[in-house]
Specification:
Blueprint lengths: L2 E14 L2 E14 L3 E5 L6 H8 L7 E6 L2 E2 L5 H11 E5 L10 H6 L13 H11 L15 H13 L5 E5 L7 H16 L3 E5 L3 H5 L3 E6 L2 E2 L5
Parallel strand pairs: 3-8, 3-9, 6-7, 7-8
Antiparallel strand pairs: 1-2, 1-4, 4-5, 9-10
Helix pairs in contact: 4-5, 5-6
Bound molecules: adenosine-5'-diphosphate (ADP) and magnesium ion.
């Protein structure tokens, strides 16, 4: 297997007035291409902070992060945003869809920032993805006309539109009933069997158990040994 992510003694400390709040403390971790990994741990343990760094939305304050062998610290802002757009897909607990855009328009949006995709392909590509997530009949629905599970499916279609190799999901089932939550997990794991790497933050042990590997984060430290 190929190594996708390597963290070495990664730290993230937030300044709080005069003092500093260490949130991630010397995290070391490797993640292989195509893995499905769950991150669990109590509220406030640093899960979202870690995911933001992995997804290049935030910078570590110490240690190293290599993504596909590239030292993330050495990337310019522009290079980071390129990697975010082309290689990463995000899924959030509250779906983060744009309320006055249809399902189709929400899925088209990230393609507008990807010059490799001709605009003549936007519509067909978005339609195909919405069909893939079971929403071929809801292309023109607004988020408010969709159930939570359906909104999360739109968000997944949107996350997939630039064919990311890494999917980052922060409590993707947190706002869903267990039935629709499970179908979202099924979908994410299906994507992982097709070659995407999936990193999923969850509170739900049943969800974590379905991933190939789980890391427990407590107070900014990985507490289980299987790194
Ligand atoms: N931007 C920030 N500024 C200051 N403190 C932060 C910031 N983001 C997160 N924190 C703090 O870091 C800790 C971990 O937060 P977070 O990563 O959101 O935890 P989790 O996702 O595990 O619930 C919390 O104490 C939180 O208050
Ligand atoms: Mg969180």
């Amino acid at each position: 297997m190929t190594e996708l992510i390597r963290l070495e003694k990664l730290q993230r400390t937030f300044a709080q007035g005069e003092t500093e709040l260490p949130v991630l403390k010397d995290l070391s971790l490797t993640i292989q291409d195509g893995e499905s990994l769950a991150i669990v741990g109590p509220s406030g343990s640093g899960k979202s902070t870690l995911l933001s760094i992995l997804g290049l939305l935030d910078d570590a304050t110490g240690g190293h992060y290599w993504l596909r062998g590239e030292d993330v610290n050495q990337l310019t802002r522009q290079q980071k945003s390129f990697v975010r757009n082309r290689h990463l897909g995000w899924i959030f607990q509250n779906f983060n869809l744009i309320g006055d855009m249809t399902a189709l328009e929400n899925v088209v949006l990230p393609m507008r920032y990807n010059s490799d995709i001709p605009s003549s392909d936007y519509q067909s590509r978005a339609e195909a993805l919405l069909q893939r997530v079971g929403l071929g009949h809801k292309l023109n629905a607004l988020p408010s006309e969709l159930s939570g599970g359906q909104q999360q499916r739109v968000a997944i279609a949107r996350a997939l539109v630039n064919k990311p190799s890494l999917l980052l999901a922060d409590e993707p089932t947190g706002n869903l009933d267990s039935g629709s939550g499970q179908s979202i997990v099924d979908l994410l794991l299906e994507l992982s069997t097709e070659g995407a790497t999936v990193i999923l933050v969850t509170h739900n042990p049943d969800v974590a158990q379905q991933c190939q590997r789980t890391i427990h984060l407590v107070d900014g430290v990985i507490t289980n040994a299987s790194q």
